[in-house]
Amino acid sequence: MDWTTLRKECLACTACGLCETRHNVVFGVGSETAEVLFIGEGPGEQEDLQGEPFVGRAGKLLDDMLKMIDLDRSRIYIANTVKCRPPKNRDPLPEEQAACLHWLTAQRELLRPKLIVCLGRISAMRFIKPDFRITKEHGQWFRNGDAEIMALYHPAALLRDPGKRPETFVDLKALQAKIREVCEHTYDSVHSA
Ligand code: SF4
Prior knowledge:
The chain is an alpha/beta fold.
């Protein structure tokens, strides 16, 4: 399946109950040849209204985090564990995550990313290990198929608790070093330190 077909089919998905309350399916954003895939949890209110992941305050913080390591949305790909907003921003239910997983799997098959970055606990528990502890294991690298994978605190958690930002800065610098080590074109044309 190509990106155009995948997007079209995903935007029409009714495979779980979240289709009944969504305004938009939040398919994903970024480069279709990205070597680094960021995976968030699920769309919030603004994401649901605008159809794009990570907008609003958390999205602005994510953009700032990316900028710190010479990245922006055009150099990576950002998608969510579920593509429709859970009502009142509750955690996505296991059955909703299970129903939605094949869309992200298809995106991953098209991208074949070298690195995956989970944003937050829900994503890390799904893609790294079920007992992942974000407070202890953020910033650590694990193997996931052909990719290496790590987790950062979710930007919304960093807004709630700015005291976690110094640890996240360390994790971001580790991510930058890993990108330089294993990726081929993510930093093409970037000359700053
Ligand atoms: S959350 Fe995923 S599985 Fe459920 S309706 Fe939306 S796109 Fe389909």
